[in-house]
Every structure is written in structure tokens, then in C-alpha cells.
Amino acid sequence: MRPGTLIGRRGAVVDHSNPDGLGIEGRIRDETRDTLRIGGSTVPKSEVSLELGGDVVDGELLVGRQEERL
């Protein structure tokens, strides 16, 4: 996965510390240092693994501001 902005990309939660969060999917609408807004749900980056563009990414690697990943 290339670094940079996640906003506008499609994503899906494939692992979550809370089983109710599994299966959340849609466009990433917003990003803060610690959370992602996917569709209508806000998920903590540190507690999920996401499928982004065919790759599965540990959310811990995404914690931080997007400009820090550029």
C-alpha cells in the first residue's frame, strides 16, 4: 500500500477487537490521528485490520496524522 491519504479510498474492516465492528465497509470519509470514518461508522485505527485496495493492513501502522505518512 502506498503512503498518503486514505480519504476517498474504499476500505473494509476484516478484523476488529469488537466483533460488532467486523464487516464495516465503504469509502473512507474522514481520518483523524486515531480514527477512520468508514461509511457511517467511526473505527479506532489501533483496534482494526483493514482491507485497502486488495491489501490487508494492520490499523496500528496507520495511527498518526496522514501527513506523517507522506
Architecture overview:
- The chain has 70 residues and is mainly beta.
- Helices cover 0% and strands 44% of the residues.
- The chain has one domain: Ribonuclease P/MRP, subunit p29 (SH3 type barrels, Roll), CATH 2.30.30.210.
- The protein has strands at residues 10-16, 25-31, 35-38, 41-44, 48-52, 55-58.
- A 6-stranded antiparallel sheet has the order 4-3-2-1-5-6, with no helix packed on it.
- Strand 1 and strand 2 form a beta hairpin.
- The mean pLDDT is 90.
Q: CATH superfamily membership, which one?
A: Ribonuclease P/MRP, subunit p29
Q: Tell me the count of domains.
A: 1
- Indicate the percent of residues in helices: under 10%
Strand content: 35-45%
The unreliable regions are none
Structural class: mainly beta
What is the CATH class designation?
Answer: Mainly Beta
Major β-sheet strand ordering: 4-3-2-1-5-6
Overall morphology: globular
Query: What is the CATH third-level topology name?
Result: SH3 type barrels
Biggest pleated-sheet summary: 6 strands, antiparallel
Tally the helices.
Answer: 0
> What is the strand tally?
6
Order of helices and strands: EEEEEE
- Per CATH, the architecture is Roll
Radius of gyration: 11 Å
List the helices and strands and how they pair.
Layout: E1 10-16, E2 25-31, E3 35-38, E4 41-44, E5 48-52, E6 55-58
Antiparallel strand pairs: 1-2, 1-5, 2-3, 3-4, 5-6
